Amino acid sequence: MRKISRRLTRSLATALVVAGVVVTSAVATTTQASAHHQPGSRSLATVLAADGDTFDHNWNDYDVLTNAVGAVLAAKPNSPVKVLANGNVPLTAFLPSDRAFRLLAKDLTGKWYKSESALFTGLAGLLGVDTIEAVLLYHVIPGATIDSRTALRSDGATLKTALPGGSIRVDVISKRFRIVRLIDADPNDRNPRLNRCALDINKGNKQIAHGITLVLRPLDI
């Protein structure tokens, strides 16, 4: 995993913008910065790197996600996933926690992994790098900086993802209690909700993220 970590750092540090990645969602232009406050250019890759990628006993952070990004970029250096390293490209990312990946593995394999490292190894072997790449891209909405306030006013909006042909729908269950659900392409499983304790990660920058409770599925798996 140390080797993957070093590759992740190098890949994200040198990544360039992916040409032609655009968004056509209904909320793509709803969060434009005012003339008096230009958004910063700190990338989400920087935020994830600062959080660390060491597997631990905290199932509420993003170690599995960070290592998944590293594994994809190690195998496919030109993957569109590298857009997460370009802080000048506006985007919104939904970040599944380690617990969310643990629930995915339990659903797919029936196995309850006791450690994050075993979970990562199990999912990587089961899904393969191409599927992992597709899943990661399905969690990225390019071209739009959607903060939680905007999300709460976007009930019914369809968001186009960085995965070609992929989309998710916003379902605002309660504005008062800030409960927002994301409807993915898998009709047979539970849909994730925004984690109210992990909203507006990297706020003030062009790239913003929100934690989610389950992994978004780009197809019925």
TrEMBL record:
Keywords: Signal. Residues 81-179 form the FAS1 domain. Residues 1-28 form the signal peptide. This is Fasciclin domain-containing protein. Pfam families: Fasciclin. Gene3D superfamilies: FAS1 domain (2.30.180.10). SUPFAM superfamilies: FAS1 domain.
